[in-house]
Write a structure and sequence with these properties.
The chain is an alpha/beta fold. It has a seven-stranded mixed sheet, with helices on both faces. The protein is globular and about 40 Å long.
């Protein structure tokens, strides 16, 4: 986790959670895909009592609630999560479009997907490092999964130059 990623997730929270319809809910299900605490976590951003924050990852770790036996299948019911988020995971996922399709599947109708991935930066295998992302990639993901790309921005601060996307159903 790097500081710009935390800042960008905070922007997602401020723009779409704190001042939106989710702010009125008493229980908000949050699922962090690939969120093992490595040099930080988004958990502190979603720390209020209304949040039920869970982490799904392919590794077992004290910070992980759901260990995935298949990285392309989330063991959750359809439309069961209010916020699906993922940061700095997509570049490590060989078939990222399949994982994104699962994110959309578990997302509630009025929910959000907050996705952060690098558009540049050095190779860093965890366990692989396959991709860098540009705005057209997020538009293609929305098209592939029949969801909406609500907002997108490219943080040009290095070395990762995060691409941030906000998706809805």
């Amino acid at each position: 986790m790097h500081p710009t990623s935390l800042e960008n997730m905070q922007k997602c929270y401020d723009r779409y959670v704190a001042s939106g319809l989710l702010a009125t809910k008493t229980k908000i299900e949050v699922l962090d895909i690939g969120g093992t605490n490595i040099n930080g976590s988004y958990r502190s951003i979603f720390a209020g009592r209304q949040f039920c924050y869970r982490v799904a990852d392919i590794v077992s770790d004290p910070s992980v609630d759901i260990v995935l036996s298949d990285p392309y299948r989330l063991p959750l019911p359809n439309a069961s999560v209010d916020i699906v988020l993922s940061g700095q995971m997509l570049e490590h996922c060989e078939f990222f479009w399949l994982t994104f399709q699962e994110m959309v599947r578990v997302l509630k109708q009025d929910g959000f997907i907050f996705l952060i991935a690098p558009s540049t930066g050095p190779i860093h295998r965890y366990p692989v490092d396959c991709y860098r992302f540009y705005p057209d990639a997020y538009a293609a993901l929305a098209k592939y999964t029949h969801c909406n790309l609500q907002d997108i921005w490219h943080d040009e601060r290095g070395p990762w130059q995060d691409l941030v996307g906000v998706f809805t159903k």
